[in-house]
Amino acid sequence: MSDGLVTLTTAQAIVRWLDSQFIMIDGEEHRLCGGGFGIFGHGNVTCLGEALHNYQDSLPLYRGQNEQSMGFAAAGYAKAWLRQRFMFCTASAGPGTANLLTASALAHANRLPMMLLCGDTFLTRLPDPVLQQMENFYDPTFGVNDAFKPVSRYWDRITHPAQIIQSLPAAVATMLDPGDCGPVFLGLPQDVQGWTYDYPAEFFEKKLHHIRRQTPDATEIAQAAALLKTAKRPMIIAGGGVQYSQAVAELTSFAESHGIPVVETIAGRANMLNSHSHNIGPIGVTGSNSANTIAERADVIIAVGTRLQDFTTGSWTAFAKEARFISLNAARHDAGKHSSLPVVGDAKLGLNALSEAVVGYQADSAWLKLAQAERQKWDSYVADNVSYGDNRPNSYAQAIGVVNALCHKRDRVVAAAGGLPAEVTANWRTLDIGTVDVEFGFSCMGYEISGAWGARIAQSQREPERDTITFCGDGSYLMLNSDIYSSVLSDKKIIALVLDNGGFAVINKLQNNMGNESFNNLIEDCPTVTQPFAVDFAAHAASMGAHAETVENPAELAEAFKRAQKAEKSYVIVMKVDAYEGWTAEGHTWWEVGTPHISDSPKVQKAHEDVESARQRQRRGV
User: Fold this and answer.
1) DSSP string, 225-252
2) Which of 367, 549, 454 is nearest to 107 (CA)?
3) Side by side, which strands form the sheet with 61-63?
4) What angle do CA 562, 567, 569 make, to 5 degrees?
5) Phi/psi at 242 (nearest 5 deg)?
6) CB 200 within 8 A of CB 190
7) In sequence order, what are the beta bridge partners of 156?
């Protein structure tokens, strides 16, 4: 160091800068970056790897088994920290980086912070073409890393060491912005990683960040208040943004003060306790009869922190066509959907401002009583749905009910793809705020175990005595299971419920519901499978170092879960469930899927006609 300058390689400077970024959370100072997940190759080991080695205590690097699963783990970590902290992922140039593409898309769809530090080809091009380089014949600057542009909120290729002085703060600003939050991608050419530059010393001084709370525009609040005051049957849709804004108390107060029933999205599950009088249940395709019944009758709907995905809106058939929407959202893009009256701003500040603007307003008490009566009916249905005995076939709902009854209220529950997100959303009875992670923004098979590992890393930093529990189908398990090994290696215990229904049963169910014959989803229906056999999932999990056992029924599952709770390392419990029986049959709205307009099959033709008939209820964006 001389004259206030520090000579470092590009890679060393990136790591040193990350090490100096902090954030205040609940009165306690934390390093903004919780560390990273890494698989080294020739594109990142010699320079970035050298830099990370010197910061392994403050920026721990978790060794991944698969780059895609590393990204899923980073997403699970970010969710558990309510987007206030992030992890980086580093992969080598070529296929290692390409494997992160799906994880980046998941983070983009779910608005999650994640930093991708990925190897790139040589800027000088002197050794070209290099190992694993995708040569573009008409544009030599265009490569695999450019594929990340549509699935990144911030994308940059570092072509000179000085560039990071601007790029790193811009990347972090994106990840901490409530409206633009998402993954950032930094392509690191292999030669540039090792080039040196005289950086200003102040660039590496400690910086304490905060997450901006945007005050909603006064005019938008006034317009929303005027509309709400006209409502006879108002309803609140509470999304994942409520938790990210830490606005749960404000949501509850708003609902109680004005007598308004609340329904939850998939991402917003665990905004309210199951027992709260104003919690009318989950809404939409994977929702509840109670929430969907009042959604059909509501005249003004306040959507808070939700992007109004099709599973929430029943592909926009869940509401009366004349219903009006007020959308409070930090993201302008989400606030104006379907001609909503937008209120762009922070959920906490926005709910308080709107409440003050409608002081004295109360929804008709009969409306809330109707909603509560519907919720009581739904509670009775769920209680029966999760029960077992009477020779009922094993089901997802029963497994969910067993765990729900035995887990601690602060245990974290994870699900992602297949039939389990719907079953968890409909049947899980929330025991405490912010304890449910159903990844249905991108609905990635394989997130279940990897996301749980990432969540467990975060949980061990906040509530180490609590468990992370993941529900995983056999299809998702076979797609991506190697982070069971990661969890054992890193001493980050997870409890995995592997529920085996012989293939991709929920898609088989959709296939059958649309009049099609079972084909290529269940193992028994795959024409190219000549020797079907059952996977011994417990033996496979045990081979990766986890405790594992197979149970025959929900009663045995309960006893195995108790053993898992006492165990000191990851525990996998396997149970077969029926592929056809035991699905949650109630609570569903219409969902638009593509159907053949003509078919030789009368069943397929009938299903198409039914879909088109239901479309008549679909809102047209106004």
Assistant:
1) HHHHHT-SSEEEEE-HHHHHTT-HHHHH
2) 454
3) 61-63, 33-38, 86-91, 114-120, 183-189, 154-157
4) 135
5) -60, -45
6) no
7) 186
Q: Which of 191, 200, 157, 199 is nearest to 47 (CA)?
A: 191
Nearest to 588 by CA among 128, 281, 212: 281
> Domain ranges in the chain?
5-209, 218-378, 388-576, 592-622
* Residues in the chain, overall count: 622
CA-only gyration radius of the chain, Å: 25
Q: Which residues contact 582 (CB under 8 A, 6 or more apart)?
A: 392, 393, 394, 395, 396, 397, 398
Helix (H) or strand (E) holding 294: helix 289-297
Q: Which CATH number, 3.30.1360.120, 3.40.50.970, 1.20.1250.10, 3.40.30.10, labels domain 5-209?
A: 3.40.50.970
The two structure tokens encoding residue 142: 């265009």
Q: What is the mean pLDDT of the chain?
A: 96
Contact in structure between 337 and 305 (CB atoms under 8 Å):
no
Strand 300-304 relative to strand 234-238, pairing: parallel
Residue 301 phi, psi (nearest 5): -120, 125
The predicted-structure confidence for 121-135, as pLDDT tens digits, reads as follows 999 999 989 888 888
Please state the pTM of the whole predicted model.
0.97
Q: What is the pLDDT of residues 213-265, one digit of tens each?
A: 999 999 999 999 999 999 999 999 999 999 999 999 999 999 999 999 999 99
AA identity, residue 572: V
CA distance 525 to 488: 35
Structure tokens at 542: 């045990």
Q: The domain at 388-576 falls in which architecture? A: 3-Layer(aba) Sandwich (3.40)
Specify the CATH number of the domain 218-378.
3.40.50.1220
Contact 449, 480 (CB under 8 A): yes
Q: Do the strands 28-31 and 5-9 form a parallel or antiparallel pair, or are they unpaired? A: unpaired
HEC letters along 517-528: CCCCCEHHHCCC
